[in-house]
Amino acid sequence: MNVNDKTVLLTGASGGIGQEIARVLAAAGAKLILTGRTSGRLAELKQELPGEGHIAVALDVASDEGVNELASIAEEHAVDILINNAGVNQLATHEHMSSEAISRMMTVNLCAPMILCSRLIPVLMQRPEALIVNVGSIMGSIGMAGSATYCASKFGLRGFTESLRRELADSNIRVVYFAPRMTSTSINSEQMMAMNQALGTAMDNPGEVANQLLSVISKSNCTEQYLGWPEKLFVRINAVLPGVVDRALKKQLPTVLSYAR
Prior knowledge:
The chain is an alpha/beta fold and about 260 residues long. It has one domain (about 5-260): NAD(P)-binding Rossmann-like Domain (Rossmann fold, 3-Layer(aba) Sandwich). About 50% of the residues lie in helices and about 15% in strands. It contains 10 helices and 7 strands. It has helices spanning about 15-25, 40-50, 65-75, 100-125, 150-165, 190-200, 205-220, 230-240, 240-250, 255-260, and strands at about 5-10, 30-35, 55-60, 80-85, 130-135, 175-180, 225. The chain has a 7-stranded parallel β-sheet with strand order 3-2-1-4-5-6-7, sandwiched between helices. Helix 1 packs across helix 7 and helix 6 (about 190-200) packs antiparallel against helix 10 (about 255-260). The protein is globular, with a radius of gyration of 18 Å.
């Protein structure tokens, strides 16, 4: 799909990856509806984007009010592309995760995209061609210690995206699962960044991720994309030989626990 003159609804636009996605899409000629919880950051982003007709709306996609507002905006502006990018994360052993933190993460990372897709599919059906991109994670395919809830939410998002893609296979809507590896953004706490450094975990910058996403959007036959090497290999190994990955990750466990507890 060529994004020039397409209207894109982007959630999580005030975050690190979201801001870069917005910049890349605007430079390619898209009209953006930017959503996030930080109104000041959204306003600044809208101001710097090339092109005209961009909209910034501060709201919480995890609330009924937020979803209802986005559905109305999407219908009013004839959205062509929905990018579910909003997400939250927390490094902690599962026993130290509060019920509130678990609920919030599952709602933002999984339930909100599912509900938003449900509300926007009728809108997208009216377009000549349409696209849903659900931004997941490599950790939607590989369970990691210290990130059980985050992994659960992204595993769920991956399964939902696969099912929705098959459900809409005979429609005008293409459904894509896009899975970055670790990325240098504010979603990662100082604690998580320190752990990644101690483990030697490679991290991409948000601009690289955004450019990869634009490339995926432009490929009409692409339905899923995993970023990073050797992470893409580990995804395949974990699917067929999880015991191999178990043993490899167990060696990292003392370091992970020292940061996660």
